[in-house]
Structure formats: C-alpha cells, structure tokens
Amino acid sequence: MAELPASVPTTMPSLPSAPVYSLWQLMLYFLKLGSVGFGGRVAAIGAIAGAVVVLGRRSIVDTPTALLALLTLGMLWKTKKIPEPVLVLGLLLYPLIHW
C-alpha cells in the first residue's frame, strides 16, 4: 500500500459535542415554534379556505355559474401557474362562446 503524505491527517478531527435538551425543553420549543414560526400562516390558510367554501356555496346557485366554476377549476388544474388576467379573459369569453 502507498503511504500517505505527511500533510494528510491520519485521524478524524473531533466534532463539538451537541447540547443535551430534556423532553420538556424540546416540547416547549416546538410549541413556541408552532405558535410563532408558522402557526399564523396555518391559521390564515384555514380562514381563507373556509371563506372560499362559504362564498362558493352562496354564489354558485344556478347551472351557468356552476359551469363557470368548473371551467375555472379545470383551467387552474390544467395549468398550475395561470395569471389572473388570463383567467378573467377566459371566463369573459366563455359566455360569448357558450350562448
């Protein structure tokens, strides 16, 4: 076997020791992280989703409106990042084509 040059270390450097936390400290940290770190976003998403359901139930009352809603969902499902102006123009042209 070939010998290693003198500049190559033969032992692994030691890593600093990781701090030791109790289960109680970890639980408090994750509770704080959930309420401060990303809890606000989760609450906002839940509120928006609930508003979408309520507004959808109140506004989709007849067949043409339901077709427009399905067409919008289809366009959003097919192309994930469709700009809003293109979506609005497409929905404006739908009644002209449909009737």
Mean pLDDT: 79
Low-pLDDT parts are none
- Give the strand tally: 0
- Euclidean distance between termini CA atoms: 85 Å
Largest sheet: none
Instruction: Figure out the total of helices.
Output: 4
Radius of gyration: 29 Å
Structural class by helix and strand composition: mainly alpha
Q: How would the global form be characterised?
A: elongated
> What's the order of the H and E elements?
HHHH
Please give the share of residues in helix: 55-70%
Please report which band the strand proportion falls in: under 5%, 5-15%, 15-25%, 25-35%, 35-45% or over 45%: under 5%
Topology:
Layout: H1 23-37, H2 39-59, H3 63-78, H4 84-98
Give an account of the 3D structure.
With 99 residues, the protein is mainly α. The protein contains four helices and no strands. It is elongated, with a radius of gyration of 29 Å.
Descriptive labels:
99 residues, 68% helix
Summary?
The chain has about 100 residues and is mainly alpha-helical. Helix content is about 70%, strand content about 0%.
